[in-house]
Amino acid sequence: MNDNRGDAPRIAFLGLGLMGAPMARRLLDAGCPLTVWNRTSAAAQPFAAAGAAIGSSAAEAVREADVVFTMLADPAAVAEVGAAMAPALRPGTIVVDTSSIGPDAARAAAERLPAGVAYVDAPVMGSVDKAAAGELLVLAGGDLEPVAELLAHFGTVRACGPVGSGAALKAVLINAVIGGVVLTAEALALGKSLGLPDDLVRDGLAASPLAGLLQRVSTTTAHYPVTHAAKDVRLASAAADLPLARTVLDRLLAYPDLAAKDLAVIADRIVAEA
Ligand code: NAP
After folding, report:
1. Pick from 92, 87, 88, 109: which is nearest to 100 by CA?
2. Ligand 1: which atom is nearest the Cα of residue 76?
3. Helices 226-239 and 263-272: angle between axes, nearest 10 degrees
Protein backbone atom coordinates (compact mmCIF):
# COMPACT_ATOMS: atom_id res chain seq x y z
CA MET A 1 0.00 0.00 0.00
CA ASN A 2 1.17 3.50 -0.83
CA ASP A 3 2.24 5.61 2.15
CA ASN A 4 1.75 8.90 0.34
CA ARG A 5 -1.28 10.49 2.00
CA GLY A 6 -2.76 11.59 -1.34
CA ASP A 7 -2.76 8.03 -2.65
CA ALA A 8 -3.23 6.41 0.74
CA PRO A 9 -5.84 3.67 0.99
CA ARG A 10 -9.15 4.84 2.41
CA ILE A 11 -9.81 2.87 5.54
CA ALA A 12 -13.01 1.99 7.34
CA PHE A 13 -12.80 0.69 10.91
CA LEU A 14 -15.89 -1.01 12.32
CA GLY A 15 -16.08 -1.79 16.03
CA LEU A 16 -14.71 0.73 18.52
CA GLY A 17 -14.79 -1.31 21.72
CA LEU A 18 -11.95 -1.83 24.15
CA MET A 19 -9.60 -3.04 21.41
CA GLY A 20 -11.04 -1.43 18.30
CA ALA A 21 -10.82 2.10 19.65
CA PRO A 22 -7.06 2.12 20.33
CA MET A 23 -6.34 0.25 17.10
CA ALA A 24 -8.37 2.71 15.02
CA ARG A 25 -6.66 5.52 16.89
CA ARG A 26 -3.27 4.25 15.77
CA LEU A 27 -4.37 4.43 12.13
CA LEU A 28 -5.69 7.94 12.64
CA ASP A 29 -2.53 9.06 14.43
CA ALA A 30 -0.49 7.66 11.52
CA GLY A 31 -2.39 9.94 9.14
CA CYS A 32 -4.50 7.27 7.46
CA PRO A 33 -7.76 8.56 5.93
CA LEU A 34 -10.25 6.93 8.27
CA THR A 35 -14.00 6.39 8.51
CA VAL A 36 -15.22 4.73 11.69
CA TRP A 37 -18.48 3.11 12.73
CA ASN A 38 -19.69 1.57 15.95
CA ARG A 39 -23.09 0.04 16.73
CA THR A 40 -23.38 2.31 19.76
CA SER A 41 -22.60 5.65 18.15
CA ALA A 42 -21.22 7.40 21.24
CA ALA A 43 -17.98 5.44 20.87
CA ALA A 44 -17.37 7.09 17.49
CA GLN A 45 -17.70 10.69 18.68
CA PRO A 46 -14.09 11.08 19.94
CA PHE A 47 -12.91 10.05 16.48
CA ALA A 48 -14.90 12.81 14.81
CA ALA A 49 -13.18 15.31 17.08
CA ALA A 50 -9.82 13.82 16.05
CA GLY A 51 -10.48 14.15 12.31
CA ALA A 52 -12.09 10.85 11.29
CA ALA A 53 -15.26 10.59 9.27
CA ILE A 54 -18.17 8.85 10.97
CA GLY A 55 -20.26 6.32 9.06
CA SER A 56 -23.97 6.50 9.78
CA SER A 57 -24.18 2.72 9.25
CA ALA A 58 -21.78 -0.14 8.58
CA ALA A 59 -22.67 0.05 4.88
CA GLU A 60 -22.10 3.82 4.72
CA ALA A 61 -18.76 3.46 6.50
CA VAL A 62 -17.36 0.98 3.96
CA ARG A 63 -18.83 2.46 0.75
CA GLU A 64 -15.64 4.35 -0.25
CA ALA A 65 -13.15 2.12 1.56
CA ASP A 66 -10.18 0.32 0.05
CA VAL A 67 -9.53 -1.56 3.29
CA VAL A 68 -12.13 -2.41 5.93
CA PHE A 69 -11.03 -3.41 9.43
CA THR A 70 -13.49 -5.04 11.79
CA MET A 71 -12.89 -5.56 15.53
CA LEU A 72 -16.08 -7.06 16.93
CA ALA A 73 -17.08 -9.16 19.91
CA ASP A 74 -17.75 -12.61 18.50
CA PRO A 75 -18.78 -14.70 15.47
CA ALA A 76 -22.41 -13.50 15.63
CA ALA A 77 -21.34 -9.85 15.57
CA VAL A 78 -18.98 -10.45 12.66
CA ALA A 79 -21.73 -12.23 10.71
CA GLU A 80 -24.26 -9.47 11.43
CA VAL A 81 -21.95 -6.61 10.50
CA GLY A 82 -20.63 -8.58 7.52
CA ALA A 83 -24.16 -8.98 6.15
CA ALA A 84 -24.90 -5.29 6.69
CA MET A 85 -21.80 -4.02 4.92
CA ALA A 86 -21.51 -6.61 2.13
CA PRO A 87 -23.84 -4.87 -0.39
CA ALA A 88 -21.78 -1.68 -0.12
CA LEU A 89 -18.33 -3.25 -0.64
CA ARG A 90 -16.65 -2.45 -3.95
CA PRO A 91 -14.63 -5.05 -5.92
CA GLY A 92 -10.97 -4.66 -4.95
CA THR A 93 -11.73 -3.88 -1.32
CA ILE A 94 -9.90 -5.92 1.31
CA VAL A 95 -11.76 -6.86 4.51
CA VAL A 96 -9.47 -7.51 7.47
CA ASP A 97 -11.21 -9.02 10.47
CA THR A 98 -9.20 -8.64 13.67
CA SER A 99 -11.91 -10.09 15.94
CA SER A 100 -11.28 -13.45 17.65
CA ILE A 101 -13.88 -15.73 16.07
CA GLY A 102 -12.10 -19.02 15.29
CA PRO A 103 -11.19 -20.45 11.88
CA ASP A 104 -14.63 -21.79 10.88
CA ALA A 105 -16.32 -18.41 11.35
CA ALA A 106 -13.40 -16.67 9.63
CA ARG A 107 -13.70 -18.88 6.54
CA ALA A 108 -17.49 -18.42 6.57
CA ALA A 109 -17.03 -14.64 6.74
CA ALA A 110 -14.69 -14.79 3.74
CA GLU A 111 -17.16 -16.89 1.76
CA ARG A 112 -20.02 -14.43 2.39
CA LEU A 113 -18.13 -11.53 0.79
CA PRO A 114 -19.12 -10.32 -2.69
CA ALA A 115 -17.02 -11.39 -5.67
CA GLY A 116 -13.78 -9.44 -5.95
CA VAL A 117 -13.55 -8.58 -2.25
CA ALA A 118 -10.56 -10.16 -0.49
CA TYR A 119 -10.45 -11.29 3.13
CA VAL A 120 -7.69 -11.50 5.70
CA ASP A 121 -8.24 -12.90 9.19
CA ALA A 122 -5.94 -10.99 11.54
CA PRO A 123 -6.83 -11.60 15.18
CA VAL A 124 -4.42 -10.22 17.71
CA MET A 125 -2.63 -11.29 20.87
CA GLY A 126 -2.19 -8.59 23.52
CA SER A 127 -4.72 -6.42 25.31
CA VAL A 128 -5.68 -2.73 25.38
CA ASP A 129 -2.29 -1.59 26.66
CA LYS A 130 -0.48 -3.26 23.77
CA ALA A 131 -3.14 -2.05 21.32
CA ALA A 132 -2.55 1.57 22.34
CA ALA A 133 1.22 1.14 22.07
CA GLY A 134 1.14 -0.66 18.71
CA GLU A 135 2.69 -3.74 20.30
CA LEU A 136 0.14 -6.40 19.47
CA LEU A 137 1.04 -9.69 17.82
CA VAL A 138 -1.08 -9.83 14.66
CA LEU A 139 -1.78 -13.38 13.45
CA ALA A 140 -2.66 -13.04 9.78
CA GLY A 141 -4.25 -15.61 7.48
CA GLY A 142 -4.75 -15.04 3.76
CA ASP A 143 -2.95 -12.78 1.31
CA LEU A 144 -1.74 -10.12 3.73
CA GLU A 145 0.87 -8.49 1.49
CA PRO A 146 -1.45 -5.62 0.34
CA VAL A 147 -2.29 -4.75 3.96
CA ALA A 148 0.99 -5.62 5.69
CA GLU A 149 2.02 -1.96 6.15
CA LEU A 150 -1.34 -1.11 7.69
CA LEU A 151 -1.25 -4.13 10.00
CA ALA A 152 2.21 -3.06 11.15
CA HIS A 153 0.58 -0.03 12.84
CA PHE A 154 -0.91 -2.51 15.29
CA GLY A 155 2.28 -4.40 16.10
CA THR A 156 4.29 -7.35 14.86
CA VAL A 157 2.66 -9.23 12.00
CA ARG A 158 2.97 -13.00 11.76
CA ALA A 159 1.93 -14.60 8.46
CA CYS A 160 0.19 -17.87 9.35
CA GLY A 161 -0.95 -19.32 6.01
CA PRO A 162 -4.29 -19.42 4.16
CA VAL A 163 -7.52 -17.73 5.28
CA GLY A 164 -8.49 -19.08 8.70
CA SER A 165 -4.95 -19.89 9.81
CA GLY A 166 -4.56 -16.66 11.79
CA ALA A 167 -7.83 -17.37 13.57
CA ALA A 168 -6.69 -20.94 14.21
CA LEU A 169 -3.37 -19.89 15.75
CA LYS A 170 -5.18 -17.30 17.85
CA ALA A 171 -7.45 -20.05 19.23
CA VAL A 172 -4.41 -22.13 20.12
CA LEU A 173 -2.50 -19.31 21.81
CA ILE A 174 -5.35 -17.69 23.74
CA ASN A 175 -6.68 -21.02 24.99
CA ALA A 176 -3.22 -21.81 26.37
CA VAL A 177 -2.97 -18.39 28.02
CA ILE A 178 -6.43 -18.58 29.61
CA GLY A 179 -5.76 -22.05 30.97
CA GLY A 180 -2.37 -20.87 32.19
CA VAL A 181 -3.92 -17.92 34.01
CA VAL A 182 -6.30 -20.23 35.88
CA LEU A 183 -3.46 -22.65 36.63
CA THR A 184 -1.25 -19.85 37.95
CA ALA A 185 -4.10 -18.54 40.09
CA GLU A 186 -4.52 -22.00 41.58
CA ALA A 187 -0.78 -22.18 42.31
CA LEU A 188 -1.05 -18.89 44.22
CA ALA A 189 -4.17 -20.19 45.98
CA LEU A 190 -2.35 -23.38 46.95
CA GLY A 191 0.56 -21.40 48.36
CA LYS A 192 -1.87 -19.37 50.44
CA SER A 193 -3.65 -22.52 51.68
CA LEU A 194 -0.29 -23.98 52.69
CA GLY A 195 0.52 -20.85 54.69
CA LEU A 196 3.34 -19.61 52.49
CA PRO A 197 3.98 -15.85 52.13
CA ASP A 198 2.53 -14.58 48.84
CA ASP A 199 5.85 -12.91 47.89
CA LEU A 200 7.70 -16.18 48.34
CA VAL A 201 5.28 -18.02 46.09
CA ARG A 202 5.38 -15.27 43.44
CA ASP A 203 9.19 -15.21 43.49
CA GLY A 204 9.19 -18.96 42.96
CA LEU A 205 6.75 -18.75 40.08
CA ALA A 206 8.72 -15.87 38.54
CA ALA A 207 11.75 -18.16 38.40
CA SER A 208 9.72 -20.98 36.84
CA PRO A 209 8.32 -21.60 33.34
CA LEU A 210 5.14 -19.85 34.55
CA ALA A 211 6.89 -16.45 34.78
CA GLY A 212 4.98 -14.92 31.86
CA LEU A 213 1.66 -16.13 33.19
CA LEU A 214 2.48 -14.67 36.61
CA GLN A 215 2.97 -11.32 34.86
CA ARG A 216 -0.41 -11.74 33.15
CA VAL A 217 -2.26 -12.46 36.41
CA SER A 218 -0.49 -9.49 38.06
CA THR A 219 -1.11 -6.87 35.37
CA THR A 220 -3.46 -3.93 35.90
CA THR A 221 -3.17 -2.47 32.40
CA ALA A 222 -4.93 -5.22 30.41
CA HIS A 223 -8.68 -5.39 29.87
CA TYR A 224 -9.67 -8.69 28.31
CA PRO A 225 -13.21 -9.27 29.54
CA VAL A 226 -13.86 -12.66 31.12
CA THR A 227 -16.89 -13.00 28.85
CA HIS A 228 -14.57 -12.90 25.81
CA ALA A 229 -12.23 -15.41 27.47
CA ALA A 230 -15.20 -17.76 27.93
CA LYS A 231 -16.10 -17.25 24.26
CA ASP A 232 -12.53 -18.08 23.24
CA VAL A 233 -12.44 -21.27 25.36
CA ARG A 234 -15.77 -22.34 23.84
CA LEU A 235 -14.37 -21.76 20.33
CA ALA A 236 -11.31 -23.89 21.13
CA SER A 237 -13.43 -26.63 22.73
CA ALA A 238 -15.62 -26.80 19.64
CA ALA A 239 -12.56 -27.67 17.56
CA ALA A 240 -11.03 -30.44 19.68
CA ASP A 241 -11.66 -32.56 22.78
CA LEU A 242 -10.00 -30.49 25.51
CA PRO A 243 -10.89 -31.78 29.01
CA LEU A 244 -8.82 -29.11 30.76
CA ALA A 245 -10.53 -26.36 28.74
CA ARG A 246 -13.93 -27.62 30.00
CA THR A 247 -12.71 -27.22 33.57
CA VAL A 248 -11.24 -23.78 32.81
CA LEU A 249 -14.58 -22.69 31.31
CA ASP A 250 -16.38 -23.78 34.49
CA ARG A 251 -13.95 -21.59 36.47
CA LEU A 252 -14.59 -18.59 34.21
CA LEU A 253 -18.35 -18.99 34.48
CA ALA A 254 -18.28 -19.40 38.27
CA TYR A 255 -18.06 -15.64 38.82
CA PRO A 256 -20.77 -13.93 36.74
CA ASP A 257 -20.15 -10.65 38.57
CA LEU A 258 -16.69 -10.55 36.96
CA ALA A 259 -17.86 -11.13 33.36
CA ALA A 260 -16.90 -7.62 32.18
CA LYS A 261 -13.64 -7.47 34.16
CA ASP A 262 -10.16 -8.34 32.96
CA LEU A 263 -9.20 -12.03 33.13
CA ALA A 264 -6.66 -11.27 35.87
CA VAL A 265 -9.52 -10.39 38.21
CA ILE A 266 -10.64 -14.03 38.10
CA ALA A 267 -7.19 -14.98 39.36
CA ASP A 268 -7.49 -12.44 42.18
CA ARG A 269 -10.86 -13.96 43.17
CA ILE A 270 -9.52 -17.53 43.09
CA VAL A 271 -6.67 -16.50 45.41
CA ALA A 272 -8.97 -14.47 47.66
CA GLU A 273 -11.26 -17.45 48.13
CA ALA A 274 -8.43 -19.86 49.04
P1 NAP B 1 -15.65 -5.06 23.44
O2 NAP B 1 -15.04 -3.92 24.16
O3 NAP B 1 -16.75 -5.84 24.08
O4 NAP B 1 -16.13 -4.51 22.01
C5 NAP B 1 -16.92 -5.30 21.19
C6 NAP B 1 -17.28 -4.51 19.95
O7 NAP B 1 -18.17 -5.33 19.16
C8 NAP B 1 -18.03 -3.20 20.26
O9 NAP B 1 -17.68 -2.25 19.30
C10 NAP B 1 -19.50 -3.62 20.10
O11 NAP B 1 -20.35 -2.56 19.80
C12 NAP B 1 -19.36 -4.55 18.91
N13 NAP B 1 -20.50 -5.45 18.75
C14 NAP B 1 -20.86 -6.47 19.55
N15 NAP B 1 -21.95 -7.08 19.05
C16 NAP B 1 -22.28 -6.42 17.92
C17 NAP B 1 -23.30 -6.59 16.94
N18 NAP B 1 -24.20 -7.58 17.04
N19 NAP B 1 -23.34 -5.73 15.91
C20 NAP B 1 -22.43 -4.73 15.80
N21 NAP B 1 -21.43 -4.53 16.69
C22 NAP B 1 -21.35 -5.37 17.73
O23 NAP B 1 -14.57 -6.16 23.04
P24 NAP B 1 -12.99 -6.03 22.82
O25 NAP B 1 -12.31 -6.29 24.10
O26 NAP B 1 -12.70 -4.82 22.05
O27 NAP B 1 -12.75 -7.35 21.93
C28 NAP B 1 -13.11 -7.39 20.57
C29 NAP B 1 -12.59 -8.72 20.02
O30 NAP B 1 -11.16 -8.77 20.20
C31 NAP B 1 -13.13 -9.95 20.70
O32 NAP B 1 -13.28 -10.98 19.74
C33 NAP B 1 -12.06 -10.30 21.72
O34 NAP B 1 -12.06 -11.67 22.06
C35 NAP B 1 -10.81 -9.90 20.98
N36 NAP B 1 -9.66 -9.51 21.79
C37 NAP B 1 -9.83 -8.79 22.93
C38 NAP B 1 -8.69 -8.43 23.68
C39 NAP B 1 -8.78 -7.62 24.94
O40 NAP B 1 -7.81 -7.63 25.72
N41 NAP B 1 -9.88 -6.92 25.19
C42 NAP B 1 -7.42 -8.83 23.25
C43 NAP B 1 -7.29 -9.55 22.05
C44 NAP B 1 -8.42 -9.89 21.34
P45 NAP B 1 -21.08 -1.75 20.98
O46 NAP B 1 -20.10 -0.73 21.46
O47 NAP B 1 -22.29 -1.18 20.34
O48 NAP B 1 -21.42 -2.76 22.05
Report:
1. 109
2. 18
3. 100
CA-wise closest residue to 72 among 34, 40, 100, 104: 100
Question: How many domains is the chain partitioned into structurally?
Answer: 2
Q: Which of 19, 69, 178 to mutate to test the pocket of ligand 1 (most atoms within 8 A of CB)?
A: 19
Structural domain that includes position 57: 11-162
Q: Is 170 a catalytic residue?
A: yes
pLDDT per residue over 165-196, tens digit each? Answer: 999 999 999 999 999 999 999 999 999 999 99
**Cβ pair 156, 163 in contact under 8 A:** no
Question: Which CATH number is 106's domain given?
Answer: 3.40.50.720
Q: Is 170 in the pocket of ligand 1 (CB under 6 A)?
A: no
Give the chain's largest Cα–Cα span: 65
Q: How far is the CA of 106 from the centre of ligand 1 (A)?
A: 16
**Is residue 118 in some structural domain?**
yes
Task: Give the pLDDT of residue 189.
Answer: 98
How high is the pLDDT of residue 7?
A: 75
Q: What is the pTM of this model?
A: 0.96
CB 102 less than 6 A from any atom of ligand 1:
no
The finding on whether 260 has its CB within 6 A of some atom of ligand 1 is: no
- Do 68 and 178 lie in a common domain? no
In a domain, residue 3? The reply is no
pLDDT of residue 6: 55
Task: Give yes or no: residues 146 and 177 share one domain.
Answer: no
Q: Do 266 and 233 meet the contact criterion of CB atoms below 8 Å apart?
A: no
Query: Same domain, yes or no, for 190 and 78?
Result: no
For the chain, residues with pLDDT lower than 50 are 1-5
Same-domain status, 22 and 157: yes
Q: Is 81 in the pocket of ligand 1 (CB under 6 A)?
A: yes
Q: Is the CB of 184 under 6 A from ligand 1?
A: no
Distance 23 CA to ligand 1 centre (A): 12
